Amino acid sequence: MSLSPPCRPPRAVGCAFAVLALAAGFPAWADPAPAFEQLLTQALTAPAAAEADANLAAAEGRLAQAGVRPNPELGLEVENILGRGPFQGVDGAETTLTVSQDLELWGRRGARVGVAQSEREAARWRRDASRLQVAAALAVAYAEAEAAQRRYALAEEALELAVADARAALILVEEGREPLLRGIQGESEAAAARAALDEARAERDAAFAELTALAGGQTPLTSVESSLLDRSPTASVGQAADVPAVLALVAERGAAQGRVRVETARGRPDVRASVGVRRFEAEDATALTAGVSLQLPLFDRNRGGVLAAEAEVRAAEARLRGARLDADADWRAAAARRDAAASRVVAADAAVTAATEAYRLTRIGFEAGRLSQLELRSTRSGLVQARDVAIAARLMRARAEAELARLEGRAPFGAQL
């Protein structure tokens, strides 16, 4: 699609019309993405969220199991059989049937249940944190897909403007008011705009593929109709909060403290009670038996286990302190970024308005022969750049809102989890 130097103006005009023809006939989009709130409901059933739900169900199962007492033991013992003298055969046998039960003294069962309750609480907060993470990631992916869609439309418009400018330049070349070089430059700019359009199409398709994957849908999403970039962010709560990720660490610290009690109880002796029935074959009589067994803690008092559990408590407390400091710093940074992004959106919109008017006036002057093609090219590039900056500013605002919402424990843009 390039012009050779001896090419005459009429042929150059024909080349420009060929470029314009290439700009037409782009495939139409289908399967538009639903609104963000509806897509979020779908995304919360995707594998990432389903895994957190399964982890919570597992923690609830462990809690139910922690409250179950140990099973009793059944024992059968036969004495005084198959010996010599009066103990030949089984006529002098003594048969004892016993049932024994671990009494779980020293608060063992309560400590075990307390740990399981804290672990269940941590799993619940982890589930909530996962849902917040899904909501934030989906908001970013939704905004990026919409931004890619707008950039593709902008690239289409830039191509149309480049072709229109090239056509106007070639008309001036045909009239002898501009050198042939201007026509060649116009066609080159149109070709570059076409390449930019192909790149924007690839970015758009990649962004929608990512959105489809996060939403967990089977049908590929290819367009956005309900805008998220133009939506105003939700008002901030004004301070950092203990979000689910931090509350999960609080619960994990409680579980670690409970393990200290569990390990302490393990260092105390096991106590078992038993009751049974004894049969005396020689006397043809029956009697009851009862007993208590107790371990002697001479060697193993589980001191190492207690020390390890206490160290785990200190580690959990350190993680909690660090997470709270990080959450506060992240919240302050996210709030500042969102405020800056909001100001940038206002400035970018004003720049688009100014660039649009500048291009309109320059186009009028160019067609009247008062301004050069270089000036027209400059204002057109400024307009395209201003619109691209406006898209980037809105995308930055959406990203900041998604991050701030996650740090405040809410869904972005007022959505409900």
Describe it.
The structure is a single chain. The protein has a four-stranded antiparallel β-sheet, with no helix packed on it. A two-stranded parallel ribbon has the order 1-4. The longest helix has 67 residues, at 108-174. By secondary structure, the protein is α+β, with helices and mostly antiparallel strands. The protein has eight helices and six strands. It has one domain (39-69, 104-267, 302-410): Outer membrane efflux proteins (OEP) (Up-down Bundle).
List the helices and strands and how they pair.
Blueprint: H1 9-22, E1 32-33, H2 36-43, H3 47-66, E2 73-79, E3 94-102, H4 108-174, H5 180-215, E4 223-224, H6 244-266, E5 271-280, E6 285-294, H7 303-367, H8 373-407
Parallel strand pairs: 1-4
Antiparallel strand pairs: 2-3, 3-5, 5-6
Helix pairs in contact: 1-4, 1-5, 2-4, 3-4, 4-5, 4-6, 4-8, 6-7, 7-8
